[in-house]
Amino acid sequence: MTYPYPEKTRLELKSLIRAVTEKGSSIPGFISFALGSPAPECVPVDLMRQAYLDVFDQDPMAVLAYGPQIGDVRLRDWIVDYMATRQNCPADGQDVVMLTGSGQGLRLAPHTLCDDGDEVYLDLFTYPNATYAAHYLGAKPVAIDGDDDGMLPDKLEEAARSKRGKLIYLIPNFQNPTGRTMPLKRREEIYEVAKKYHLAIYEDDPYGEIRFSGEHIPSFKSFDSEDLVIYSGSFSKILSAGLRVGYLFGPEDMIKKITAVKNTDGQAPLYNQKIIYRALELIDLEAHIQQLRETYGKKCRLMERALKDSCSSRCRILVPDGGMFMWVEIPDAVDIDAMSDAMIEAGVGPVKSAAFTSDLSRPGHAFRLNYSAPSEEDIVKGAALFGQITRQFCGD
Amino acid sequence: MTYPYPEKTRLELKSLIRAVTEKGSSIPGFISFALGSPAPECVPVDLMRQAYLDVFDQDPMAVLAYGPQIGDVRLRDWIVDYMATRQNCPADGQDVVMLTGSGQGLRLAPHTLCDDGDEVYLDLFTYPNATYAAHYLGAKPVAIDGDDDGMLPDKLEEAARSKRGKLIYLIPNFQNPTGRTMPLKRREEIYEVAKKYHLAIYEDDPYGEIRFSGEHIPSFKSFDSEDLVIYSGSFSKILSAGLRVGYLFGPEDMIKKITAVKNTDGQAPLYNQKIIYRALELIDLEAHIQQLRETYGKKCRLMERALKDSCSSRCRILVPDGGMFMWVEIPDAVDIDAMSDAMIEAGVGPVKSAAFTSDLSRPGHAFRLNYSAPSEEDIVKGAALFGQITRQFCGD
After folding, report:
1. Which comes out higher in pLDDT, residue A153 or B4?
2. Contact A106 B265 (CB under 8 A)
3. Contact B200 A3 (CB under 8 A)
4. Average pLDDT over residues A311-316
5. Is this model's pTM higher than 0.90 or not?
6. Cis before residue A68, ω within 30 degrees of 0?
7. Which residues, including other chains, have CB under 8 Å from residue B337's CB and lie 6 or more apart?
8. The complex's ipTM?
């Protein structure tokens, strides 16, 4: 007899991103555009080593023993200051909770805010863990259609009329997977719907600092007069993804409840937080972020050029203003699964849109291509290969 | 208007353990028996420093970048071997999932196994996060009475007749907070009830290696013919609590589902796992565990003697065969809240049983005293103070 699992965990949701990596691992010279990893050349290795040693040697037992549940207080203060000065979000009535990677918040928000069957609204194509986390909690992920400016307010409102909505999940800057950035006007329109239906907004902003063209757009959090917005930030893309340090910044009462739920998981690794704080003391952050932007911008333009030179004219290439991902739409009539398999066999691994859909019945017709992790050489080579196969499948 | 939180997170569950620490922090010379921290003198600081450096210098990007979702494969293999050789649990049909501290499993098990309203059975006095995690998931924690051998099988069966039961939470060795160890016969009886009602058993064993008297008792997992048992292990009490590395070992299908749910939280910090693995390579584990047992045994006997010399004869002192905690029961007629406050004011901080109850209507009449974290001097002094106040409240 098998164990009587609840409905919510009976369906297994598989990562199609990992599937690309796994298939590719047996192909010699495989060029992966599948990961969402930061550019390795931008990780300040020597400085991080110094930070590790400084933290350990200053007080080994602060590293090796349990520490305060709240996390490293100096890093929290740094975040409050960062949110006020760089994101224009003062701390009045707001609080911070430290996370083991900002990804932890994708589960904590619906865990704290949603009852069984409550609805979470997401872009049709979005970060899969946000969809999966809602699903595994017994909440209902609902896909909302968008255009080039992101989620459509009237489509959101249509869904919210169910009165079962609790939460909107958004990545307003350089969205994963589409690379799109939501203009201020659209943010304000979405906010109006959230206000009307009392929906919380989870503003996921891991890539926000990596803008290499266009102007900074104010975050939802910066005009959150109604205390609806939880802002999620991360050090993964700026300093180190491996340390798994992220945070949520939001209304005091929400953060308090999220913290209580989080605490049942036990304490987050304090050492990792202390290393990040020490690295922030050691680094020239402005100069470092400038370097990140230049590197990412250069890699993005390299991919853009190679794709435009080689892709079928029937493809639509969306070039982002920042972040890590390019999005290539193909005609609806093309068999995307066959095309994806052909890509991998030929030695290049983008990720097909089905990996990101929040509505399993709509797998879509597009590919996400990461340009931050591969080398410049691989970007050029891989994009040419990708383009060649688009011409095979979509025509010149 | 406040946000419409779901029922399950509306009630705030507060840690009465932390309350003791907070109150005590303003009292000069305060001796805390409140924490569940390992003996600091047993943490192999220099060896851990070596492990940190070795791991970083061998491959910095394996530390600083994202790694495999599965965790460190060598540490997983070590665990499989450990379970087979030291716990007599072969790996056939079983699997491992790495956790960010074994505490993460307290949430993952009910998250994966329970629907809204499903019942989780726990000892009346138990580790609070197990109760809180079930509650915050919308499951129903149900307190089961016990005796000196632990949970009573007939009481468990009485509850399980509801047919809403999904999970039993147990700490069979040196239970937190009572220090009790469940004899083999009782384990077998509990297992029979689990089998009959198809309940999973979460066997939490963070203290199992720290036995300083009596004989090893086979784990539930070692006779789990029906694939009902998830065994939870930790490196916090053996090597370092601060690194937050634990694991679950259980039936393949359960671990697979738990892993899928866990993955929505993102990746666990890989560095921490690598450090633990390197430390296991560097250390003489047998000798280290022997030293742990001697240190903990000595501290336990010291507290036992000091309590027996000073406590009211109307107290019942439960002396454990291992682990970190002593349990002192007081007469039902005594006002335990007043007594607890008087303890803290006098400068000693045990934790009253209300902190551990899984049934808020039954706060109980007992105190948990930790002897691993305080120094030998503080144990003697604090236990004498504790005893003195028991005589004030309970009579000689």
Report:
1. A153
2. yes
3. yes
4. 97
5. yes
6. no
7. B352, B354
8. 0.93
